[in-house]
Amino acid sequence: MSFLTPRLFAIANMISDREVVADIGTDHAYLSIYLAKDKRASKIFATDINEKPLAVAKNNIMSFGVADKIELLLADGIEWIREKDLKISSCIMAGMGSGTILKILEDDCKNIDCYVISSNTDVEPIRKWAKSKKYFIEREEIILDNDIIYEIIKINKFAGQKIKTKEDLIFGPILYKTKHNQYFLTKWMEEEQKLTTLLNQIPKNEKKYKEFLKRKNIITKMLKKENSN
Ligand SMILES: C[S@@+](CC[C@H](N)C(=O)[O-])C[C@H]1O[C@@H](n2cnc3c(N)ncnc32)[C@H](O)[C@@H]1O
């Protein structure tokens, strides 16, 4: 399907066959439609907090002929999953900021096995949340879409990589340990540059200085190791 952007395609690739999926903040519902057409998901609950995107989603779903597989819901977050006592194998949250995603995750419940998350902002707070819950990282991808680099992560409650170190939190336990692609390196070279600029601007006795320096040193160490390989 040509309408699927590289980001949405990478998210779809994290869904296995015959899953029951929740697509929170579906907007146009393109991802849900792809998952339905591709037969990857057996059932999809596509939700949005706003009525306007849901009306667009409804039109798109009808024109692609997948209304039998996708249930549209006007809902805020994921509380409805527990209320309806549904079993969701993967709950997708994409195209929102980490603050909104973390707020939604406050309603995490045992009815959901995995989360596939593609945040518009820094992913580290999401990894922190997963670590605090003792959940695992099953998959991680870093991709380029429309000149923006996105990290996409699949959190699994039962299996995967543990988040153990500061490096795991910053870079991601899988992305850190596997061969680094050009987007991974670009992202962290840019972050290193940003931190260098910041460190030149704030007084050394400020608390933030120490935090930024520590973070920069971790990034520099990783990049140096990469260059020596
Ligand atoms: C930028 S769109 C992302 C669409 C699609 N998921 C994607 O990644 O391309 C974000 C959508 O999330 C919806 N949204 C924001 N907060 C939400 C919440 N708490 N619960 C459900 N939907 C929400 C918005 O109404 C909007 O349609």
Automatic annotation (TrEMBL):
Coiled coil: none
Record GO terms (molecular function): tRNA (adenine(22)-N1)-methyltransferase activity
Matches recorded under InterPro entries: SAM-dependent_MTases_sf, TrmK
Keywords, in A-Z order: Methyltransferase, Transferase
Biological process according to GO: methylation
Domain of life: Bacteria
Protein name: tRNA (Adenine22-N1)-methyltransferase
Gene that this polypeptide is encoded by: trmK
